[in-house]
TrEMBL record:
SUPFAM superfamilies: PUA domain-like
Pfam families: DUF3850
Name of the protein in its database record: DUF3850 domain-containing protein
Native organism taxonomy: Bacteria, Bacillati, Bacillota, Clostridia, Lachnospirales
Domain DUF3850: 7-78
Length: 79
């Protein structure tokens, strides 16, 4: 298991924190695997990092699925 930190815009951060959003579509640059811990850090384009974080364990990763509109080099991470 590894820890992966990612910034996330406030409107999406709030949805993740409220458990209304349980996935992210991201560039597949960290080789995220099931069981990894993703730390989402709230980010505002004007103010920067807020200091608030949400931690989730990865339960699902979808790669190489152009039939679902997923572009090459991207993945869907579910928690």
């Amino acid at each position: 298991m590894k820890v992966v930190k990612k910034k996330i815009l406030t409107k999406y951060f709030k949805a993740v924190r409220a458990r209304e959003k349980n996935f992210e579509i991201r560039k597949d640059e960290d080789n995220i695997q099931i069981g990894d811990l993703i730390v989402l850090e709230e980010w505002d384009n004007f103010y920067g990092y807020s200091g608030q974080v949400v931690r989730r364990y990865v339960k699902y990763v979808l790669r190489n699925a152009p039939e679902f509109g997923l572009k090459e080099g991207y993945c869907i991470i579910g928690w």
